[in-house]
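Example record used in the benchmark description.
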Amino acid sequence: MRQERQAVGLHYKSALFANIGLVHVVGSSCPPQQKLAQLLSFSGGNVTSCFRKAVVCVGGSASNNDAIHVTEKWVLDSVAANRVLPFDTYLLQPPARSQSPEF
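Model output (C-alpha cells):
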C-alpha cells in the first residue's frame, strides 16, 4: 500500500476498508482514537462517532449493541497485510456479568 501511495502522491486513498460499513473507534483506544480513525479513513473506511450506528467497533470493551467488537490490532494487522483480516482472532468479549446473590 505504501508503494501505491508514493506512486500516486497526496491524492492516494486505499479502498481496503471500503466494504466494512460504518466503523466506530473507542475514545480510549491505543493507538489514539484520532490516529486510528485517520488510518481507517485513509484506508477507505467510513468512520462514525456514534457507536450505535457502527457495524464494527474498534477498541474498548464489547457492549450490548449488535456491532462486531474487535481490538485495535485488527486494523493495524489488516493494513500491514493489505487485506481485511477475519474478525475471529480479534474479537473482544463482553464484560463478564457478576452473578446476582441468591436470597
